Amino acid sequence: MTLTPLLRSVLLVILLGMGASAIAEDGYRLWLRYDLMQDAAKRKEYSSLIKYFVVEKTSPTLEVAEKELSLALAGLLGLKTSSTKDVQESGAIVLGTSDTSPLIKSLNLQEKLKTLGDEGFYIVSTTIKGKKCIVITANKEVGVLYGAFHFIRLLQTQHSAQNLSLQHAPQVKHRILNHWDNLDRTVERGYAGFSLWDWHKLPDYIDPRYFDYARANASVGINGSVLTNVNSNAQILTEPYLRKVAAMANVFRPYGIKVYLTARFSAPVEIGGLTTADPTDAAVREWWKKKIDEIYTHVPDFGGFVVKANSEGQPGPQNYKRTHADGANMLADALAPHNGIVMWRAFVYDNAVPEDRAKQAYNEFKPLDGKFKSNVMVQVKNGPIDFQPREPFHPLFGAMPQTPINMEFQLTQEYLGQATNLVYLAPLFKECLDSDTYAKGKGSYVYKVIDGSLENHPLTGMAGVANIGNDRNWCGHPFAQSNWFSFGRLAWDPTLSSESIADEWIRMTYSNQQDVVSTLKQVMLASREITVRYMTPLGLHHIMGWDHHYGPGPWIKDKPRADWTSAYYHKADEAGIGFDRTKRGSDALGQYAPEIQQKYGSLENCPEEYLLWFHHVSWDRKMKSGRTLWDELCHLYYQGADSVKWMEKSWNALEGKVDADRFAQVKSLLAIQYKEAVWWRNSCVLYFQTFSKKEIPAGLEMPDRTLSYYESLQFPFAPGIRPKW
Ligand code: GCU
Q1: Which atom in ligand 1 lies closest to the alpha carbon of residue 314?
Q2: pLDDT tens digits, residue range 379-399?
Q3: What pLDDT, in 10s, does the model give residues 498-556?
Q4: Which position among 215, 225, 241, 605 has the lowest Cβ density within 10 Å, counted as fewest Cβ atoms?
């Protein structure tokens, strides 16, 4: 039926009359969807326990906690809650700290709260004045807010709310999103529209979306936001921008979120009128001190800086023959009186150095261990190259015992299918966090480096390069939201499992129906491995399209920098394929502990998923499956693409069980993902065949296009970089 404009508006009026839940589900609410719980028995159970709030003395943070709970209870249970200052009947949720609530103080919970720090919380079912109630408390108000979100999550995931006694505290201190947002609102490697930050209308106009952004972050414990791109612009440090930053900090503060900025190392020259940015120059030091003091007049709880220096053309201390430590310490000194911190990135590699790129960060930073001020963390990407679908953990984890190291994960899917592929990244994050560095013997897991427990560092952090833009659903792909969610959950507790995080997210975002939960969980948990198979199986890496990094490009060679090409990494020739990083080759393996060198250094013991990362291997080598390397490579590419078909089938079976809007959206995206998987498969198999000179194994469908067709494809519209046409 074609709808005339009139019919359309009549329909719209009817829909609006049916309430919000009947309107298109556009994904805006993320996992904070508070639709009426379908299970009437559960609703009754919860409603019998919860009737009203008791907040004796409020504050901006307690206010947002109470507001969120009211919103959730109204939506999930249809409850209209009110707030009082005393317990009158059973069914109170009592919110506060010992300082804000004499009722809570009278419960003498010091023992329980002792180990929970500034951000942990305690939720307990108890009685006050003989009336049953649920107390959500903490040492500081932000803990109460986290407790409120935890309580909401319990309801959304339909856990019992009876006899509660729950204590949780974050294992990592700084849990920070890194936005690679430019001041012109483009987002470097952003696949979800433009930047959320509306610099033009700030500070006077506050986009309501900033509040929802803060709610979403607080709901998973994210407590920091770096607003600007690591490839930074010094303008952000000028007064007009600082006033805008202050307005955002004011919005985020009640939610426990601090703002951070990226500091362009050459700012003293670019906006300060100096002739040098040498960190040992007195005038430069003074300039930064004044600038930082000025920032704190605008934002009294400013978090500090992330710095990308002497990396990919960015200015840095090495321009003046100084070290990374000299540069970081200069900023650290100026930030220290305000309790600010520096996150100095170790993502460095130099075109002039003919060294395996995988080794360069370690070579530059390891000698600086112990040379950084105590308010500096060295921010290290999970792997030694650059957020590839699979990398071994970065050798710097465990290698700088005297330096706090914070993790940098990439949530935006630069190398994992951008906005069109469903890839749940928690398994990738976990693979790294659970890797054993052997730095202090067996059990020296990466997560213990990150939570500070391995070397007793009080300063700890985890950064996630954000996948958020102004797309209505925030992250572009509806499932990309799960990567924002998992980052927050893992930064809070790196020992959580991918499975439990997926379980929570699905229930909160889609449905509690068992078949929906189990189908989506299977798809999500398999998705990263499937992507590895159709993109970079067996340890291949960095073979994507040039510059925009969209799609395959194993043929990329002869560019201004060798280490920006694919040929540099796969090293395919007639004899075989892979990068020899053993002693015979670049010896990047030598940067790891002996236990790892032993395991990965031998062709026999090296796990096959890392084989071509560490070894150059003959096409004829027999693999564990009994196939030759060539046949295995082909099989994995085909299996990967076939598995996307399985993902599609699994999703299609959920028609009618998830809302129609997101169903249709994900269905279209999975169809694109399949096309892209076949594109990767065909391009890579045809290209590597030019070296192996072997047939594609019998039984596998022959590519229907030629290699030169794939090589000729151009993508001027690829997202994530500034257009160049
Ligand atoms: C990658 C990415 C760049 C980014 C860089 C970084 O190389 O492609 O866009 O600037 O990482 O992390 O600094």
Answers
A1: 13
A2: 999 999 999 999 999 999 999
A3: 999 999 999 999 999 999 999 999 999 999 999 999 999 999 999 999 999 999 999 99
A4: 605
Backbone angles phi, psi at 682, to 5 degrees: -65, -45
Distance of CA 177 to the CA centre of its chain: 7
What's the number of CA atoms in the CB half-sphere (13 Å) around residue 657?
18
Question: Is the confidence at residue 663, as pLDDT, over 80?
Answer: yes
Residue tagged active-site, from 26, 56, 281, 312: 312
Distance from C-alpha of 155 to C-alpha of 164, rounded to nearest angstrom: 12
User: Does the active-site annotation cover 312?
Assistant: yes
> Three-class SS of residue 43?
helix
Q: Is the peptide bond before 367 cis (omega within 30 degrees of 0)?
A: no
Catalytic residue among 364, 414, 431, 451: 414
From ligand 1's centre to the CA of 231, what distance in Å?
8
Helix locations, 653-717, DSSP H: 660-692, 707-712
Peptide bond into 203 cis (omega under 30): yes
66-85 b/e with 16+ CB inside 10 Å = b? Answer: bebbbebbebbbebebebee
Which tokens belong to 532?
């590895």
Kindly list the protein residues whose Cβ atom lies closer than 6 A to any atom of ligand 1.
Answer: 188-189, 230-231, 308, 312, 347, 386, 414
Neighbours of 34 (CB within 10 A): 20
Contact 375, 336 (CB under 8 A): yes
Torsion of CA 134, 137, 141, 143, to 10 degrees: -100
Q: Residue 538 burial (CB < 10 Å; 0-12/13-18/19+)?
A: buried
Query: In the numeric block, which tokens belong to residue 683?
Result: 């391009």
For a mutational test of ligand 1's pocket, the pick from 178, 189, 350, 388, i.e. the residue with the most ligand atoms closer than 8 A to its C-beta, is: 189
Interacting residues of 108 by C-beta distance below 8 A, sequence separation 6+: none
How far separated are the first and last CA of the chain, in Å rounded? 41
Q: Which two tokens stand for residue 708?
A: 């030169």
Burial annotation 353-388 (CB, 10 A radius, 16+ → b, else e): eeebbbbbbbbbbeebbebbbebbbbbbbbbbbbbb
Distance CA 305, CA 336 (A): 12
